[in-house]
Amino acid sequence: MSSVTDVAPVPATRTPEGAPRRPRKPRGGLVLGLVAWVIGILFVLPVVWMVLTSFHSEEAAATNPPSLLAPLTLEGYRTFFGVGTGTNPWPSLLNSLTASLVSTLLVLVLAIPAAYALSIRPVRKWTDVMFFFLSTRMLPVVAGILPIYLFAQWSGLLDNIWLLIVLYTSMNLPIAVWMMRSFLAEVPVEILEAAAMDGAGLLRTLRQVVAPIVLPGIAATSLICFIFSWNELLLARTLTGTRALTSPVYLTGFVTSQGLFLAQMCAAAFVVSLPVLVAGFAAQDKLVQGLSLGAVK
Amino acid sequence: MSEPVRRARRSSRAGRRPRLAVAAATALALGASGCAGWGGGPGGGGPDSINVLMVNNPQMVDLQQLTAAHFTAETGISVNFTVLPENDVRDKISQEFSSQAGQYDVATLSNFEIPIYARSGWVAPLDEYIAADSAFDQADVLGPMTQSLSGDDGQVYGEPFYGESSFLMYRTDVLEAAGLTMPENPTWQEVADIAAAVDGVQPGMAGICLRGQPGWGQVFAPLTTVVNTFGGTWFTEDWEAQVDDAGFVEATEFYVDLVREHGETGAPQAGFTECLNNLIQGNVAMWYDATSAAGSLEAEGSPVKGKIGYVAAPVVETRSSGWLYAWAWSIQQASQKKDNAWRFISWASSREYEELVGEELGWSRVPAGKRASTYENPDYLAEAAAFAEPTVEAIRSADPENPGVQPRPAPGIQFVGIPEFPDLGTRVSQDVSSAIAGRMTVQEALDRGQQLAEDVGERYRERGTG
């Protein structure tokens, strides 16, 4: 999210006395700062507009030109939370949370050992393995949707959250392996050697030496996997029904071709975005460290 | 112990709290979703529940609100709804019903899909249920509705939830101030003249709103009725494509010229919702569209409530030209709970449900346009007096079998009742929308449309179907 753009990923340096030294401002810093602000505002503006619209009435939300100062109301949120409408967003929110959390955990459990075997102790032809992982992302999801649907129908897994968990895990695994490999490649060999000299075995080295060093990378990978799973629409819309419905599908249900829906749609979009926003803010420091450490370096 | 390992241990201790939080959140999600998405198989959800897939229109939102407190309370049958936008719901229903997955017992289908689905055996015939349920009173359902929801075998495959035709809506105060009178049965030329006269009489007010958004159900819903009354057709009785024929071209040029000269701002992107909004906000003086729009225009809080007049769909060569459309309930053939599904349909499409909506939510929100008794109900007429009569007249005068001046190969007024029409109509509509935007001429758009229509027609000629 744009919230991470204002934290400069510049490694802190120290003076010989040990006091932190301020990074020297580059020339043209003011211009760059302004550009950063403009880009930041451009990213944030639609979100601010969405939040503002969510507090307007449907009529005020649909005016052209837009009315900024229209009276505020909680009607959109009441509709979303089903006050007097007979609807209930909680099952879909919980389904999304389950699918995103469980698939992210599964991805980490599988991706970290795989990345270890591709970076710290590279297996033979590890570049081919990396390319294989990447190639699994080359087929568009929509191209595989029919066989997946038919398989789900045949196996009785339609409208089952486990199917989404498996699909989201396989969907995010290649990305996670690539990211984690970049992060693990940054771990200095000297530290591993020192751990070995201290008598640490493989598991202990992984748990107590490697994991803490690449924690920012794990946080960044987890968040990206969580966001991709949380926002996924195509598979969820095709494969779920009344019980495993996820929040993006529930969200689209507010669109109608016969009436006004902008305000309640904005309220729903804001509520559905909240978990990702909260996770992003909570992991902001780790995320910036992680993203500047490996994958996008 | 080396410094890196000590630091790592500190980090490890510091990381315990987030791990605990993740574990707790996962446990919560797993526990809480025990009642949500776990488990599968068709027709799930318990023996006394049914799954309903429906389009998100305001009438369906009202239904969701009333179901638990009334239908479930009376019958003990709980109803699990999945609500999607129109295009999405069509895709999902098509996928669900064509594979007979059995996830949903009931779905909202229109009178376009029902005859096609019935032919394919995807929906269950309802005649036996209707015969056994005298309280439902099928005879009260308007004739054109029952006819359009029946299959080739004459059996009924869908029960209407609400129906609509099309008519012309206009601002009575604006026309009166301009010294103009709207005829009861206007011709399109009269409408064009009035649109020119009222265009700009108030700041920012255009003469008329007509859909220009691409889509077989968007621009081609009103435009095909205009084509019909101008003497045009998509196909002759023998499946000869007629898209570049004089009647089709003249009608489309008239429509495009009218909307370009006196139509709304942003016409190439305007659909039902945009035009509704335009009329409510005083951005247009007239609107030709679905009769179901009247409920929103006359709802409490609408700034144009009581200021709208309603007259029959404008004509040229035909006596009437309103379309016929219904969102109806159908039961999937693969459903294991057909009896419960019928009980739901019988309740949702009943006269009693209309009364319930009228009493609890207001009479302007009644899902009308399907039963004759609705238009004899004094409570409904008190609220909907302005548009009730034009609506029921428009529906009664609609003839899906014979909507134009020549015999047709397939039923349908604003569409051709064949599975290929959504693709054909949408592709041609993209060019018509471009013509409205001024990026190509109508003739160019329809020449391309003719080629597409010829491909479809040829397939039907080869099959020898008509």
What features would you describe in this structure?
The complex is a heterodimer of chains A (297) and B (466). Chain A is an all-alpha fold. Chain A has a domain at 88-293: MetI-like (MetI-like fold). In chain A, 65% of the residues lie in helices and 1% in strands. A two-stranded antiparallel ribbon of chain A has the order 1-2. Chain A starts with 12 loop residues before the first strand and ends with a helix. With 466 residues, chain B is of the alpha/beta class. In chain B, the strands form two sheets. Chain B has a five-stranded mixed beta sheet with strand order 2-1-3-8-4. In chain B, strands 6-5-7 form a three-stranded antiparallel beta sheet. In chain B, strand 1 (49-55), helix 3 and strand 2 (78-84) form a beta-alpha-beta unit. Chain B starts with a helix and ends with a helix.
Spell out the key features of this protein.
heterodimer, A: 297 residues, mainly alpha, MetI-like fold, two-stranded antiparallel sheet, 2 strands, 65% helix, B: 466 residues, D-Maltodextrin-Binding Protein, domain 2, 2 domains, five-stranded mixed β-sheet, 47% helix, 10% strand, globular, SBP (chain B), Bact_solute-bd_prot1 (chain B), Carbohydrate ABC transporter substrate-binding protein, CUT1 family (chain B), Carbohydrate ABC transporter membrane protein 2, CUT1 family (chain A)
